[in-house]
Amino acid sequence: DQQVKQNSPSLSVQEGRISILNCDYTNSMFDYFLWYKKYPAEGPTFLISISSIKDKNEDGRFTVFLNKSAKHLSLHIVPSQPGDSAVYFCAASDPSNTGKLIFGQGTTLQVKP
Amino acid sequence: DAGITQSPRHKVTETGTPVTLRCHQTENHRYMYWYRQDPGHGLRLIHYSYGVKDTDKGEVSDGYSVSRSKTEDFLLTLESATSSQTSVYFCAISEQQGIGNTIYFGEGSWLTVV
Q: What is the pLDDT of residues A28-37, one digit of tens each?
């Protein structure tokens, strides 16, 4: 039972345009969410996070939006750059307070020059 | 970069042999994790540790065991490797739990079981 889902395996956008990556979750107890970025042959790196008391968090070109009623979050990258091409993972912090993260399947973003 | 070192980085082994992957951290973080990454599955938790000698199972723990005898080291053992355990294995660490918790990952260990 996949509690965190990224239903789009891949996304291709033109440089300079907006990239929108989506994530859905099923457990209403999740209260903290993170996005990670992963380049080939490297480990995932933390990108941005949001807690359930907010509906938006922004860090430079990256903004994460949270819609708790829809159990949906999205990552917006504006403007997209070729260096943003990577796999993006959405994750939720396990509410059992073990520090565990539950990840989605990942979305591969390709930004074309 | 988080001070996490995984070894070996690449290994090819035969079915039925035991394999141990090592994770070493220099951050003195309490929590350590082993994840595996497979196409279509994202990152799945194998085992985690919340202190020295304190470990627990994740969602895909069958066929794996772990040990943590020191804060800085977390070992993952495949007791008898199978082809289904061919994967990329990531160690991760975190300082705290709950809201605000960020997990930092190592660079990965590529394991092929033939």
A: 999 999 999 9
